[in-house]
Every structure is written in C-alpha cells, then in structure tokens.
Design goal:
The protein is mostly helical and 62 residues long. The protein is built from 2 helices and no strands. The longest helix is centred in the middle third of the chain and has 28 residues. It is rod-shaped.
C-alpha cells in the first residue's frame, strides 16, 4: 500500500530541522491539543440543562 508524498515547502523544512527543534514543536502541539480537549470537555458540561426553577402556583382569582 502506497503513501502520499507531500512536496510542500513546509514539509521539506520540517524534515531538515534538528531533533531538538522537532521536540519543541511537538510539545507545543501537544499543549494546544490538551487545551482544545479541555475546552471541548467544558463546553459539554455547560451544555447540560440548567437547574429547574421551582414552580409557584398563583391564585386564579382574588
């Protein structure tokens, strides 16, 4: 099974970077992924129904 070869200039630059720079970029992307995951988790918690308001029966006629 073949794979696609990406010929963009960014991919070529990334292949030529030193390992220490790649480690920094990898750590940066992991931090962003963790922040996005936390944001999605909090959005899911906020989307739940709010607490119901207690219903008070008002007199129909005075």
């Amino acid at each position: 099974m073949g794979t696609l070869a990406h010929n963009s200039w960014l991919v070529q630059v990334l292949h030529r970077l030193p390992d220490s720079w790649l480690a920094v970029l990898d750590a940066w992307s992991v931090r962003i992924a963790v922040k996005r995951r936390e944001k999605r988790r909090l959005a899911g918690l906020r989307s739940r129904l709010p607490a119901t308001v207690p219903y008070k029966l008002k007199p129909w006629r005075d």
